[in-house]
C-alpha cells in the first residue's frame, strides 16, 4: 500500500501493511517506489518463534514486503535513518530451542514438514495451548519443527520500558488469547509463540530497548529471509530443499539484512548495499531488547511500528552494511574525542613536531560468516575496501581506536573504529558521520 503524493511516479511516503511468505524474492513485485529522501512506515510482525512454529512459512521470520527506492541501482547503497521503533505487543514468549527429528527437510527454519503425512510446508491450525498445539490441516497431528527447551513468557508495562516474566497460570491465560497479546498485524500469517506458554523463569525483570533484527535490502536471488546473512546463509549451501545455494551464490546474492545488532535502533543510520533495481527495502524481527550476541539463539520478538527515512548513496563500494550507531552505543575507544582530549593531543603533537592530527569519525562495518572468526575477517576486509586501506591498518585502527563487537552468534560482527574522515568523504559517507556525531 502506498500513501502520499507522487513526484515523478514516486511517493513521498509508503505505508507497508503486507508481509512475505518468509522468502525475499527479487522477482516478486515491490511496493512503491518511494522517492529518494522519502519515508517508509510499517507495522511489523514478530520474528523468529512465531514463524518458526508456522510450517507454511518458508523462513525463520515474517518480514515486510520490499519497497523500491527511486534511483537505487545495483552497486549503490541506501542510507536509512531510523526515526522510530515502537513496540505494540503486550507480551511475547521466547527461549532456547531444539529441533525434534523428522519435522523438516534439512532445515527446520526453511523446509518444515509433517512427519505423519509427509506434507512439506503444511498449512496448520491451533488446538489448545502448549508445545503440541500446532496441528497439520491434512492429518491433524502435531507439527513441531521447533520446541522450547527453556523459555519464558514476558509482559510489558504501559510505558514499554520494562517487562516481567510470568508464572505458568499467567502465561497460560495469555496463551488463550495469544493474537491479542502479541498484537499480530492483520496480514500476518504466523501462529503466535505465546500459545506455547513457557514459564521456566518467572519473576525476572527485564529492560526494554527495542531495535530491528532485520533491516536491509532484497538479495538478488530468492532466499529465506532469516538466511540473508553469512552465518544462517551457510545452512543453504548444499541444502536438500529448493532454496539451496552454492558458496559462490550465497556470497554474490545475500545483502546481510538479518543482523540482530542491538544498535540498529532509533537514531542510528544504516547504509545497505543495493543488489537489485530499486533496492527492495524490507524490515522485521523487532526485538524488545537483547544483549550482544543473542546467545540464547532468540530474544523477545515483538510486533511494532517503524518509521524510516531513505536516501540513495551512489557507487557504494562494498557488498555489506555500514552502521553509524548512536554515540552512546559506541565502544569507549571508538567514541569521538572530546574538546579536552583534542586540545591535549594537539599540544602533544606540537611537542613532537607532528604537523596535524587526522580528522576521524566513528564507523561500524558489518561482517558475517559461518562462524565468528570468518565474520571478523569479512568485516575487516569490507572495512579495508570501504576506506581503500590495508587490512593490517584496519586491524590496528580497530585495536587502538575501536573494538570488535558481536551482533549475533554464530557469525555477525561489527568492526567499529575511528576512521579517517576524508576516506569516508571519498565514498559519500562523511556527511552521515558528521550528522550523527556533530563533527
From TrEMBL:
InterPro entries: FmdA_AmdA (IPR004304). Pfam families: FmdA_AmdA. It comes from the Bacteria. PANTHER family: FORMAMIDASE C869.04-RELATED. This is Acetamidase/formamidase family protein.
